[in-house]
Structure formats: structure tokens, C-alpha cells
Amino acid sequence: MLPGGYSAVMQAQSRDEFRDEIVRFAHGLGFDTVSAITVVDHGLSNSEFIAVDNTPQAYLEASWDRDSGKRDPVMQHCRRQSVPIIWNQGTYAEQGMGDMWEQMARFGYHTGIALALHLPEGRHFQFGVDRDQPLPDDPRELQRLVADLQLFAVHAQDAALRLFLPASLQPERPALTPRELEALRWTMEGKTAWEVGTILGISERTAVLHVNNAMHKLGCVNKHQAVLKALRLGLIH
User: Fold this and answer.
1) Structure confidence by residue, pLDDT tens digits, 30-67
2) Are strands 46-53 and 123-131 parallel, antiparallel or unpaired?
3) At what angle do helices 223-232 and 139-164 cross, to 10 degrees?
4) Distance from C-alpha of 196 to C-alpha of 193, rounded to nearest angstrom
5) Which residues fall within 8 angstroms of residue 119, CB to CB, at 6 or more apart?
6) Which of 26, 46, 56, 149 might form a disulfide with 31, Cβ 3.0–4.6 angstroms?
7) 107 phi and psi, to 5 degrees?
8) Quick check: pTM over 0.90?
9) Ordered DSSP codes for 35-88
10) Does residue 110 contact residue 131 with C-beta atoms inside 8 Å?
């Protein structure tokens, strides 16, 4: 129902699985490094950052600076906007931060794409991929990379909030019955209502009823949205 990478990251059950999926996605697009940062604002000047990445340890040690995020033009763009930014040496040079780019470039950070999703209740998700080779010159190919990144980030953000937010901040999970969950799971596999009924030993009409009940409880208008939301909430895998 969903391309493998997108559905796989939503089904991640641990930090390590989540990291494996975002690294696999980045490599599939031709990028060496990736960073996913979940931010929870607890107050005006108190934010919690949960970072998952494959950043080289040597780069972390060489570049650590508590004020670097305040000076980094890519970080500042993502802090204020949701529109993706395609960055390279010029992005830093234009802001008088050429020295910062020079330091990054020593570790393979020559260019990349980054974006941020700003959610209600002070929750944010920043996602970026980087590499040491130039990005494509073909505008259509570059547009495809950005679109793939945006779509993946939406799914990764759902998984990150589920995995990294404390229980008290998790969205309420609807109480679906075992039959409703089974019907959704087989619907996810592409089965029709008749096939779901046959598998579960119930009538087609009852299978439809289970799916409709699940849709109602999840607040969705069709079965495809219901499957996607159930995956995001970790109700089905």
C-alpha cells in the first residue's frame, strides 16, 4: 500500500530500527549522512532535542559549539520555516559563514537538503540529508529528491513522536477491537472485504462493518486513511 521505505520507518519499534530506516532512505537517494531531530518545547527557553543520525563522531567532536545552531543558516531557516532548503557553500558564504562551511566540508558536508515540520503543542521535527557531491543540475530530478524527502519526513516524524515522546505527551490511541485491527491489517495487505471475511471466517458484510468501525474510531473518511493512521499510531505493523 505504501512504498517500502515509508511504511518501514513508520513501523520502527526502537531507536536503532528508526536510525537504520532513515540511513537506508538517505543512502537510497544518494546521500551519505542523515539527521532527524525531534524537538519538544517545554517553555519559552526550555526545549528538548532528540537527535538520531549517522554523523561522524570526528565531526561532532570538531564542530561542537553550543552557539553553532544559532549561527548556522540552515538551522535558522528550518527553525523559522517549513519550506525545504537546498544548501551548499554559497548558502554559508552569503551569510558570512564561509568558515563554518569549510569546517563541515572536511567531513563530507558539501551540500544537502533540509526541512522542518512544525506541529501543534510545541513539537517540531527537522530532517536533513547531506553529501560531498553536487546535487543534480536537472531541475526535475532535484524536485523529485525534495518531494521524496518531504514525503519520507512526514512518515518519519510520526514514528519519532511515537518512539521518543514520553507517554504523557503521546496522542490518545483509539481502542480498536482485535477483529477491527485484524480487518485493518488484512486491508493493508490489499485484501478486499470478501477476502478479509474469508480469511477471518466471517461474512463480507461483517468484514466491512469492522473496517467501518475502525475508520470511525480513527476519525478517517476511508479505509486507506484508517490503515495509514493505524500504522502511525503503532496499532498495526
Assistant:
1) 999 999 999 988 776 788 889 999 999 888 877 666 56
2) unpaired
3) 60
4) 5
5) 125, 157, 161
6) 26
7) -110, 15
8) no
9) EEEEEEEEETTEEEEEEEE---HHHHHHH--TTHHHH-HHHHHHHH--S-EEE-
10) yes
Q: Cell 514520553 appears where?
A: 166
Q: How far is CA 186 from CA 150, 183, 198, 199, 213, in A?
A: 28, 5, 11, 9, 15
Please report, as a single letter, which amino acid is at residue 44.
L
Q: Which three cell numbers stand for residue 113?
A: 537538503
105-153 pLDDT, tens digit each: 999 999 999 999 998 778 899 999 999 999 999 999 999 999 999 989 9
Domains and CATH numbers, the chain: 4-169 (3.30.450.80), 178-232 (1.10.10.10)
Could you give the 3-state DSSP secondary structure of residue 112? strand
Task: Tell me if 146 sits within 8 A of 29, measured CB to CB.
Answer: no
